[in-house]
Every structure is written in C-alpha cells, then in structure tokens.
Design goal:
The complex is a heterodimer of chains A (352) and B (339). Chain A contains eleven helices and ten strands. Chain A has helices at 3-6, 24-40, 46-59, 74-97, 99-126, 141-157, 163-176, 191-264, 279-295, 301-314, 338-346, and strands at 14-20, 61-63, 66-70, 128-130, 133-137, 178-180, 183-187, 266-268, 271-275, 316-320. Chain A has a ten-stranded antiparallel β-barrel with strand order 1-2-3-4-5-6-7-8-9-10, surrounded by five helices. In chain A, helix 5 packs across helix 11. Helices cover 54% and strands 17% of the residues of chain B. A seven-stranded antiparallel β-sheet of chain B has the order 4-3-2-1-7-6-5. In chain B, strands 8-9-11-10 form a four-stranded mixed β-sheet, sandwiched between helices. The longest helix of chain B has 33 residues, at 100-132. Classes of the chains: A alpha+beta (352), B alpha+beta (339). At the A-B interface, helix 2, helix 3, strand 3, helix 4 and helix 5 of A face helix 2, helix 3, helix 4, helix 9 and helix 10 of B.
C-alpha cells in the first residue's frame, strides 16, 4: 500500500509521479484490430475503437497506486462523429464548388466551434475518473465563446502580439474550470511569464534565422564558385533542411517549456503539479517518432503514440499535500458527446 | 464451504465507494453468485450487476458496481483466476487484441481490404454515386468559379471571333462516343499560366489562346476539347471529390494524430493516382470520339508530342501536366490503341 493513504498530514508534500504501463507492442495489437474493424464497418466501429484505446491508456496510467478509468459511451461518440462528419463534409464540398457558399459555411463552423470545444471539454472530463470519482468541467458557454472565438480573433488582429496573453487566458480558463469530484483545479501562471517565455523563443527564432541566412550566403557563394549552379542549389536545399529542422527543434523546445510553465502553476485543491519536460527529451522523442513512422511506412504509429504519451505523463508528478483520500464526488448529469466527435475530427488535442 | 458456493480464492485490492476518493483495503470473495467485499468496507452484489474491465497485459483489473463504486485488484493474476472460475470470458475483440496470430491475420486482412477498396471498390462506388447525382447539382455548385478565375488568372482572348466560331462549330459537329453527353460552353481565354485547357463543373471548357497557337493544328485542338468533354461526361469532378473525401477520411482513421506532415504525402500520392486514372479515361474518351468522327488519331498524337516537347523544354512539369501521366506514356497508350 502506498504511504500516501496512511499518513496523517505530513510536514512536506509527498511527490507522486505518474507512471504509464502501456507498451507499444500491446497497443500495436489493439490498433490493428481497431483499424480492421473500423474500416470493415465503414467507420462505425471507430467510436468503439476510440473507447477501447482510451480505456487502455487510462487503465495503464497510475498515480499513487490507483489507475484512471475512461467511461466514454461509444454510441454517444458515434452520434457526435456522424454529426461532425456532416458538418465538415458540407463545409468541404461547399468550399470546393463555390467560394461564397464555402465562406458562409466557414463562418457557420467558426460560430459553432466554441460551443463544440465546450461540449468536448465537458465530455472528456466527465468521462474520466480516478479512484471512482469523475472529473468535470463547469465553465460557462459565454466564457467558452470569449476564450475560443473572441480571444483568438484578438490574437490575429494584434498580428500575434497578443498570443501569449491569449494562451495564458485559455489555459487559465481550461484549468480553473476543471474539477476532480468537488475539488477545483487552479492556475496561477501570470501573463508576464507567458510573454517572457514567448519572447525568449522569438529571439531564438530570429537569431537562428539570421545565423542561417549568413551561413547560407557564405556556403552558397563557396559552393557556387566550386560547383556552379548545381553546387549552389545543393547548398540551398541543405540550408532549407537545416532551417526546417532548427525551426522544428525551437518549436518543440517551446512546447516543453510551456508545458512545464503551465503545469508547475496548476493546483488541485492543496496539491501542486510538477512538470519536468526537457526540450532535448521532447525533440529527441518527436524526431525518432517521425523517422520511425516514415521508415516503417506507418507501422510505428502505435509505438510512437505510446512513447509520446509515456513521455508526457511520466514528466508529470503530483506534489501531494496531505492525502488524496478526501476528495468528494460531485455527481452532475450525463453529458452528450457531439462536441467530442467534432473535436476528434478537427484534430484538437485537449489532453494534458 | 457449503456446496462449493465459494469460488476460487480471495483477492485483495482497493475499493472506492464513488462518494469519496478514499481507498478502502478490502478482500474480494465470490459466494453464491455474489461478489462480496470485506475489510474496511463491506459490500455484496450479484455478479451480473458488475462490469468487468477488459483484460490487458499490465493494467489492473477492475470491477465496477452499478453505482460506479470500483474494486481494483492488487494482483492481476489472482483476479484473472477468480474471473475465470466465475465463468467470465473475454470478448472476441479482446481475444484478438491479445493474440499475435489473430493480429497478424487482421493485418493481412486490413491490407487486402484497403487495397481492394482503393483500387476497385471506391472508384466503382464513386462512379455509381456520380451517375445518380443530377448534373444540375454539379453545375449549380460550380457557378462563379469561372468568374473568379477571370478576375485572377485570365485575360480576354485575343483570338479573332471568326477563329473562335470556327473551332466551336467544328467541335459541335463531332458526335460524342456515348449518348448523353452533357451540355458545355467553350470559353476562350488568354492566360498567365501558359498553354492549358480544363473543364469546370459548371460545364465550361476553358481553352487558352496559348494552347491553340502552340498546337497549330485544329484537329489537335478538337482532340484536346474531346478530352475535356470526356472529363465532363464521365463526371470526373464529382467522382474525384468523393474519392478524395473517402481517402482523406480513411487516412485520418489510419494515421490518427501522427501529424499532418506524415499524413500529407501519402494522401497526395493516393489522390494523384486517381487523377492519372481520370486523365487516362478522358484520353480514351477523346480517342473514341475522334475515331467515331473519322479524324485520324495522329492529331491526338500531335497533341501529346507537343506536350512532351513542352515537358522537356521546361524541365519541370507545366501546369497542364501536373497530376497527369507523362505525355510519352499517354502517347504509347494511344499508339497501342490505334493498332
């Protein structure tokens, strides 16, 4: 039995790391069977596939000796997916055939998107439980529109200058409105900290871009002298590859630092979170995953998935202040899953 | 033991009552068709009211009560023995997921289904659906595309009106190879994109001045127009749209969240294959149309030879040829047909 349950209130918080026991080879088997059944049933099984996949990942995620559980109802997910497919399909057909009609559909999709994200947050949290207690989301629809429509528009209008502010507000909304049973999460990272992080990476991008441009000029000149036109174009291609790789690495580094910033400032009641992602760790992970998927023509996908989840989950710990035993359930009604189906298809990632 | 009513051994674990997050140490026994918990919490429920979590290699097995209270076993092995003794069996899907042999067979089946679907089923299905869809739907949706192109890409034609009338009339006199050819409009335009011709869903066949001048052979121009009419008659736009959507959906299912970078390349390659199929079909249509009207196929050969010259000259493929088979291949196919 884990020490956490037995202790009276300890002086210092106990660190409980999340552990993840899913394996690539087992998920590969689940993935293949899911794929076959999904394709053969023309996608109908995909809702059941999603539930099986999530149940597998949740059940293999452990914190302080207890595992998580996923409760999503496949029928609800299927309905959501069909509705989402009609909406997205209509939008794509419209855009392909007629621009004005396509723009109208785009406006419709943009107008309902915040509602869908809101539904999706409710569904995914409501259907997650730990120790027999479900998570939940209480944010209002109005603030969903503020955070998923007004703020992104603001970010665009300010040509990205408002992005760190918008990101902070978005995370604050997601985290403070989430609850585990009756206990709420809270979030105390400031806008200033988001701006500082973004500024450092903007500097890296600009500095790296300059360095690459200079190196490219020199290299192109030398190669041009030595090898003529082919030499110069070879240098340009090499430079493009190096530049792309550099930008990817900076992007991953930013993700790692932001992830740490966000979770190190998140609390559940009296318990804090601790995130220890490193950017070489994340960059190495994504790089090897991408290479693996390409080399194996896609067969590595389930392994890559498990590796990415393991890295993200095992980089997170809970600093338990007192005991995890006294969270009380807050049983709301069932939540429909239209938004969840939509979020699936549009590729939102709402986890962690 | 009265009458062997207690099944198997006791399994220790944690019980969560669904009211608080507290872990209760309990022992599970199965007695008289009931699951009985004893220890820090006491509870008993008929077995058929419990939900058993599916078997995986590492995750703990769970029993969920009707009110969402959960028992989580400490040891998977003990729990599985007990479950087995109660007659609980895994579902077929779970069995498949745990067996490498079943997975290997599933994989082979998956490859076969995907390949057959991509090569035969989807093209045939798309053709059927496109045939059933009234042409008016396609036309209505395609309105406005030419206006947009006129604003952004095209200039008014510089071909004399008499020349345009000549070509329009010559093409109008050709009988299509099959009945039911859709109505079309010829649109002559000068363009920034060089020699080009294409059909729009609205029924407009656009022909650039540059192509007419380049071909220097009116019957080769007719072959080009016949090819484009083939696209309209065979409903290629609608078929490609259906095929493209299904391929994109299938790729989303297969690749999932592996990233758009990895998914984009195969999606494009798969779509281009369909595109080249459509071009071949339109070539066959044009060849049949010329043949039926007594125009020698050498004029169509001339079209391909000209395009091949363009390919060689430009190095990169000109816009007309992107997503088309190489002209040499189209030429070879045509000569094969002529024989």
């Amino acid at each position: 039995m884990s020490a956490v349950f037995e202790q009276a209130v300890p002086a210092a918080p106990t660190e409980e790391r999340i552990t993840f026991s899913a394996t690539g080879s087992e998920y590969f088997r689940i993935w293949i069977v899911n794929l076959l059944l999904s394709i053969v049933t023309l996608g109908i099984y995909s809702a059941w596939a999603k539930v099986r996949r999530n149940q597998y990942f949740y059940a293999n995620t452990k914190l302080a000796g207890s595992s998580f559980e996923y409760h999503g109802n496949p029928m609800a997910i299927l309905k959501g997916r069909i509705a989402a497919l009609v909406l997205l399909g209509g939008y794509n057909v419209a855009l392909r055939y007629s621009l004005p009609f396509g723009l109208v559909m785009m406006a419709v999709v943009a107008a309902v998107m915040p509602w869908l994200v809101w539904k999706s947050l409710q569904f995914s949290l409501h259907n997650s439980s730990y120790r027999g207690i479900r998570f939940g989301f209480r944010g209002s629809l109005g603030s969903a529109y503020l955070h998923y429509l007004v703020l992104p528009i603001f970010s665009v209008i300010t040509i990205g200058l408002g992005t760190p502010f918008v990101h902070q507000r978005l995370k604050r909304y997601q985290h403070t409105e989430s609850r585990y049973g009756g206990t709420h999460f809270s979030f105390d990272a400031t806008v200033g900290e988001f701006y500082k992080t973004y500024a450092v990476f903007l500097g890296l991008m600009i500095g790296g871009g300059f360095a690459l441009a200079i190196a490219g000029g020199v290299m192109g000149g030398v190669a041009g002298l030595l090898g003529g036109a082919t030499g110069a174009s070879g240098a340009v291609i090499l430079l493009a590859i190096v530049g792309y790789a550099f930008m990817l690495c900076v992007g991953w580094a930013l993700m790692a630092v932001l992830q740490n910033l966000i979770w190190n400032h998140t609390q559940l009641g009296a318990h804090r979170f601790k995130s220890t992602m490193t950017w070489p760790g994340l960059a190495g992970l994504y790089l090897t995953n991408t290479l693996g998927i390409i080399v194996t023509l896609g067969l590595f996908i389930p392994f890559a998935h498990v590796r990415a989840l393991r890295y993200r989950l095992e980089s997170t710990a809970v600093l338990v202040n007192g005991s995890l035993d006294d969270v009380v359930a807050n049983n709301g009604g069932a939540v429909d899953s239209f938004g969840e189906g939509m979020a699936d298809l549009t590729g939102f990632d709402l986890s962690l | 033991m009265d009458g062997g009513a207690t099944l198997g051994t006791a399994v220790s674990g944690r019980y969560y009552d669904g009211v608080t997050s507290r872990a209760h140490r309990v022992v599970l026994r199965v007695r008289d068709g009931h699951a009985c918990l004893e220890g820090e919490a006491e509870r008993s429920a008929p077995l058929n009211e419990l939900r058993v979590s599916e078997r995986t290699t590492h995750a703990p097995r769970k029993l969920t009560f009707a009110d969402e209270a959960v028992f989580e076993a400490d040891d998977r092995g003990e729990m599985e023995t007990l479950l087995h003794a109660t007659g609980h069996r895994d579902s077929t899907v779970v069995w498949m997921q745990q067996s490498w042999r079943a997975v290997l067979m599933s994989f082979v089946a998956l490859v076969v289904v995907l390949a057959a679907g991509y090569l035969f089923l989807l093209p045939a299905g798309a053709k059927l659906v496109a045939r059933m869809l009234p042409a008016s739907v396609e036309r209505q949706l395609g309105e406005g595309v030419l206006d947009m192109l006129d604003r952004q890409v095209f200039r008014p034609t510089q071909l004399p009106a008499s020349r345009r009338a000549e070509l329009t009339q010559a093409f109008a006199q050709l009988a299509p190879p099959e009945d039911g050819a859709p109505p079309y409009r010829l649109a002559f335009r000068r363009s920034r994109i060089g020699p080009n011709a294409f059909a729009l869903p609205s029924g407009d066949i656009v022909l650039t001045d540059e192509l007419v001048n380049l071909l220097e052979d009116d019957k080769a121009v007719l072959a080009t127009l016949a090819h484009e009419l083939g696209h309209l008659h065979e409903r290629h736009m609608t078929r490609r749209l259906i095929q493209g959507s299904v391929v994109a959906a299938a790729i989303t299912v297969v690749v999932g969240d592996a990233g758009s970078l990895v998914a984009g390349v195969p999606a494009l390659a798969l779509d281009m294959h369909y595109s080249r199929d459509a071009e071949q079909e339109a070539d066959d249509y044009a060849a049949a149309m010329l043949h039926q009207n007594g125009i020698p196929l050498s004029h169509m050969e001339r079209l391909f030879v000209t395009l091949e010259g363009l390919e060689k000259e430009n190095g990169a493929m000109p816009a007309y040829l992107a997503s088309h088979p190489p002209s040499a291949e189209r030429l070879a196919r045509l000569r094969e047909r002529a024989r």
